C-alpha cells in the first residue's frame, strides 16, 4: 500500500506542498491584480507598460450629448469612461446647442464627475410674456422658482404675478393695501430681503427718502400683508426670517447692537443677543454672529449659537467687516467667516461637533479661501460650493471634491455687484445688460439674452425656460418680461 511506503509518502507530501504553494501564489497574484486594478492599474497590451487608469462619469442636460474626448468620439452621455491617467479635453455636443468644453488632468485611481454640464441653445428667440410702457423697478422670484413678482411701473402697490412653470396661465395682478405702506411723497423703492419657505410670503424693505420700513407681502392673500414697523412699533435696522417662517422674525438694531426675536402673532419681542456687529441665522435655533467683546470693546468674537450652547469660532477686532454664512451639505454643517481686511474666508466643518470644542477653545479651522477684500460670500443652491467674491475675482471651495478654485472673470463686474447662483453649479451675472452664465470654475461662459440694468434672470423649476425683464422684441423703448426656451423642442 502506497501510504505505507515512506518514499512515496514523502513524494506525495512534496506534491501537496508544491500544489498548495502554487495555489497560494495564484491567490496572491490574483489578489494583487485585483488590488492594483482597484487603484486603476492596468496592462497596456500594445506597449507592454503598466498604466494607471481613472474614471470619468459624464452626463448632460438635455440628454443625450455626444462625447468628444481628446478629439475622439467615445459615445454619448450618460456614460462611464475608464481611461489612462493624463491630460484630457472633453467636449459635449448636441445639435442645436452650444458645445460644453472642459480641460483637466485625470490622476490615476481618481474619478472625475462631469455630471453637471448644461447645454444652452445655439440661438435664443425671446417672446414677450407681458409688455410695460417703462421698466418695472422691482422683481423677484420664489424659492421654488414657480412665481415671479414684478412691480408695475409707476406703482408701489400693484404687483404682477407670473407662473414661471406654465406661460399659458394668465398674468395675475395683486394689490398691496395702501395702508400697509407709509404715505410719502419721497422717492420710493423696494429691496428683496428673503422669501419664506412657503413660497407665498416675501419680506421686503421699503425705502423712502433716507428711511425705510419692512413689509411682509402675502402673494396669495395681499390683504393679509403687514408692515412690521407699524405692527410692532419698532424701527429695526435689519429684519430676517427665523427658519424661513414668515411670522417668526429676527430684529436687529445697529445703534444698540441688539438682536431680538418676535412672533408676529404674539407680538412679544424677546432679546436674543447683545453687542452684535453682524449675524446669520440658520434653521430654528442656530445663529452665527460677530459681537463686540464685553471686556475689551476693541476686540470681537465670532460665535456659533446653537440653542443654549455657544461655541467661539474665532477672535478678531471690532472694527472689522465680517461676512457670515452657513449651510449643510451631505449631512455636514459648514460655517463660513469672511474678514475683509485680511483677504480671507475661514471655513469650519461641523464646528459644534468638533471634539476640541469647549468654552475656552475654538473649533479647528477646516480650510481657508484667499481673496483680496471679499465683498460677498454665498453657498450654491445645493450647498456644495462656498463662493467668495470681490468684483470679478472669485474663490470657491468644493465640499464634494475637497478642492479650491480661484479665477478672475474677464467680465466687467463692479466691486459692489453680487453674482448669484443659477443652480448648484452655475453662476449667473447681469453683465452690460446681458444675461451671462459661467460654470463654478469660471469656464464655459455663455452670453444669453438682453436684460435691463439692475435686474436678474429667472428660471423655471426644471430649467426649461428662462425669464428676464428686457427691451421688448418690437420696441426698444418699452420693457417686457420675456421668456426664452432652454430646450429647443419646447413650443414657445
Total helical segments:
2
Task: Give the CATH superfamily of one domain.
Answer: YVTN repeat-like/Quinoprotein amine dehydrogenase
Beta-strand residue percentage: over 45%
The level 1 CATH classification of one domain is: Mainly Beta
What does the average pLDDT come to? Answer: 91
Bulk shape? globular
Ranges where pLDDT stays below 50 over 5 or more residues in a row are 32-40
**C-alpha Rg (nearest Å):** 29 Å
Second-tier CATH architecture of one domain: 7 Propeller
Account of the protein in words:
- This protein has 492 residues and is mostly beta strands.
- Among the domains are: 2-38; 50-114, Immunoglobulin-like, CATH 2.60.40; 285-450, Methylamine Dehydrogenase, Chain H.
- Helix content is 8%, strand content 48%.
- The protein contains two helices and 40 strands.
- The strands form ten sheets. Strands 1, 2, 5 and 8 form a four-stranded mixed beta sheet that branches.
- β23 (286-292) and β24 (299-306) form a beta hairpin.
- It is globular.
- The model is unreliable at 32-40 (pLDDT under 50).
